[in-house]
Specification:
Layout: H1 2-16, E1 22-27, H2 33-50, E2 55-56, H3 60-63, H4 67-75, E3 91-96, E4 101-105, H5 110-124, H6 130-168, H7 174-192, E5 200-203, E6 207-210, H8 212-221
Parallel strand pairs: 1-2
Antiparallel strand pairs: 1-3, 3-4, 5-6
Helix pairs in contact: 2-5, 5-6, 6-7, 7-8
Length: 231
């Protein structure tokens, strides 16, 4: 209908408009240790990064860990933070003077929180719209999560392939056994790429690796459960 098209066009126009101001409100509970620690120690840095482009609003009750205040603000005043639930915490709530609002759920790690605020500072210099800024930050945060997810799924897939080969080829040829080791090494590298900590390995003088590459080197070159395959 014409009325629906009119409303839709108005929404598109509002989303594309440049607001006079955008403000961001970090919302979290005291149990969100990494996020609360980062903000308590680096709020001035965040404010400096966003500069005049975004007004960072630090709510004292949230900073003091008043969980009742946070829950009340979200559940008893749904029109203040429309669409936001407790399950979305920790997050950054964005709003502008055009009536746009959105939020980005933060990963509860200091490194990822730092990346989110860096992206926020970058996005704020390109646009003055709460939804557009939130979408840019969300893309940055989700891309990292997707990387970990796909690395984990790839590891599972490779392990599944090896198990399938083992079932249908209980007596592999030397070539097949070498391929099994390559696939298993790739699976181990995929799993290690999404786990914290650092791993390093060296084989001889010239082969050296760290992180996921180290896992590949260890699994491929060191085979404590190597089988005696028929020649």
């Amino acid at each position: 209908s014409k009325s629906s098209l009119y409303v839709f066009s108005r929404v598109l126009k509002r989303v594309g408009q440049k607001a006079n101001y955008v403000q961001a409100i970090p919302i979290y509970l005291s149990g969100d240790n990494e996020v609360s620690k980062y903000l308590s120690e680096h709020m001035q840095d965040v404010d400096a990064l966003t500069g005049p482009y975004i007004h960072m609003i630090e709510v004292d009750a949230i900073a003091k860990g008043d969980a009742k205040f946070v829950v009340s603000a979200i559940e008893r005043e749904p029109f203040r933070f429309p669409g936001l639930t407790i399950n979305d915490l920790p997050c950054i709530w964005f709003e502008d003077d055009l009536g746009n609002s959105s939020f980005v759920t933060l990963p509860n790690t200091i490194d990822k929180t730092k990346e989110a605020f860096q992206e926020l500072a970058f996005a704020a210099r390109k646009t003055r719209n709460a939804r557009t800024i939130a979408a840019s930050v969300r893309k940055r945060v989700m891309s990292k999560a997707d990387e970990r997810k796909w690395a984990f799924l790839s590891g599972i897939a490779f392990v599944g392939m090896v198990l399938g080969f083992a079932i249908f080829e209980p007596n592999p040829s030397p070539f097949q056994y070498t391929m099994f080791r390559i696939v298993l090494a790739l699976a181990g590298a995929g799993f290690v790429s999404m786990t914290p900590g650092f791993l390093s390995a060296q084989v001889g003088t010239f082969i050296r690796g760290g992180g996921a590459l180290a896992a590949f080197v260890i699994i491929f070159f060191f085979a404590p459960a190597a089988l005696q395959v028929p020649s």
